[in-house]
């Protein structure tokens, strides 16, 4: 049963609504390999963050702002696992406490910096933008295949988009665009008009379709001969993550209720960091169940993905420019937009539920 747009729906975020952000959520901060014994500056939901690894190796994240003269702490250096401001040498521990003021024995209680909860998973350091005491590890993205034998993990890129993150989420709830925007990599004209099924599952949305008895798309053509059945499952997790399960199997071998592992299967994680109202970063990676011992297979797949994602980037940035030129124009939704409509509704509900008290101020 497909999802239908209700006539009396709860509030959903409009395309031109300014960024408020869902603070009670996990967002990618950086690849784990980017964090070491030097401060790194990132921006999440419009808020500059400084991150580093403490003496114990754990990721620390604070507001990138010294409370003394408002100097960016990311310009400083690490001393004994704490970060030292480059301006006057005040030093702050991973919990945000000031632990040293040069020349002074007493440290004023106001000398503290807001801290954020962090965790590492799937090759990424994640940050919880709300109250760290309310951080819920169980809300983190879970891909069971990442810990199973027979699967290879491949880190992708941190691709910056000049668009609002919800516009990228629209794209990642929408397999119908693949036939038109990515005809040389992920799709072809044979997918045009194939029906899409949309299902809501709590704070997730699953959008899927099957294309039967056709040649493989370009990304899979080197690994399998036709005719094949092809599938696409886009699972969106509010507010900013989508896992795409797409693959190919000999025609008739696997159906919607069958074991997709009998075919060639790729899982792509798109973990989006909302930077500000007009910028976001897609940290993407892949898992595959074939060619797991051959790095060349991963490189070949990622070369094709990079072509497709650049096509997405070019289109979404062009849309952002037109939204800026036409601030009063709202998109006209059609039937294939059931998932994007539901996606924005979910994000709106999460923001409403958090309310003003959730702001870090």
Automatic annotation (TrEMBL):
Pfam families: Rieske, VanA_C. It comes from the Bacteria. The keyword Acetylation does not apply. InterPro entries: Cholesterol_7-desaturase, Rieske_2Fe-2S, Rieske_2Fe-2S_sf, VanA_C_cat. It comes from Pigmentiphaga soli. SUPFAM superfamilies: Bet v1-like, ISP domain. This is Aromatic ring-hydroxylating dioxygenase subunit alpha. GO terms for molecular function: dioxygenase activity. The lineage of its organism: Bacteria, Pseudomonadati, Pseudomonadota, Betaproteobacteria, Burkholderiales. Keywords: 2Fe-2S, Dioxygenase, Iron, Iron-sulfur, Metal-binding, Oxidoreductase. CDD domains: RHO_alpha_C_DMO-like (cd08878). The keyword tRNA processing does not apply. Residues 26-127 form the Rieske domain.
């Amino acid at each position: 049963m497909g999802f239908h747009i209700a006539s009396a729906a709860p509030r959903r975020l409009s395309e031109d609504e300014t960024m408020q952000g869902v603070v009670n959520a996990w967002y990618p901060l950086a690849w784990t390999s980017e964090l070491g014994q030097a401060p790194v500056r990132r921006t999440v939901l419009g808020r500059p963050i400084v991150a580093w690894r403490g003496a114990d190796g754990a990721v620390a994240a604070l507001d990138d702002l010294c409370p003394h003269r408002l100097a960016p702490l990311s310009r400083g250096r690490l001393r004994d696992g704490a970060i030292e401001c480059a301006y006057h040498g005040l030093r702050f521990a991973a919990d945000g406490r000031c632990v040293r003021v040069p020349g002074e024995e007493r440290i004023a209680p106001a000398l503290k910096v807001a801290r954020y909860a962090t965790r590492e998973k799937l090759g990424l350091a994640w940050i919880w933008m709300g109250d760290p005491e309310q951080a819920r590890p169980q809300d983190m993205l879970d891909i069971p295949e990442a810990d199973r034998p027979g699967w290879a993990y491949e880190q992708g890129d941190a691709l910056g988009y000049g668009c609002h993150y919800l516009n990228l989420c629209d794209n990642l709830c929408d397999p119908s665009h693949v036939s038109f925007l990515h005809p040389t990599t992920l799709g072809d004209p044979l997918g045009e008009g194939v029906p899409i099924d949309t299902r809501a599952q709590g704070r997730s949305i699953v959008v899927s379709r099957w294309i039967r008895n056709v040649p493989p798309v370009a990304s899979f053509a080197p690994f399998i001969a036709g005719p094949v059945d092809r599938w696409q499952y886009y699972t969106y997790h509010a507010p900013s993550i989508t896992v795409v399960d797409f693959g190919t199997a000999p025609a008739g071998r696997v159906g919607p209720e069958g074991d997709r592992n009998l075919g060639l299967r790729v899982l792509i994680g798109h973990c989006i960091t909302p930077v500000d109202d007009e910028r976001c970063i897609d940290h993407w990676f892949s898992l595959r169940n074939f060619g797991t011992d051959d790095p060349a297979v991963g490189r070949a797949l990622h070369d094709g993905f990079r072509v497709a994602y650049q096509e997405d980037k070019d289109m979404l940035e062009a849309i952002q420019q037109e939204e800026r030129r036409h601030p009063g124009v709202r998109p006209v939704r059609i039937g294939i937009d059931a998932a994007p409509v539901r996606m924005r509704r979910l994000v709106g509900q999460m923001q409403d539920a958090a309310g003003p008290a959730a702001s870090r101020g």
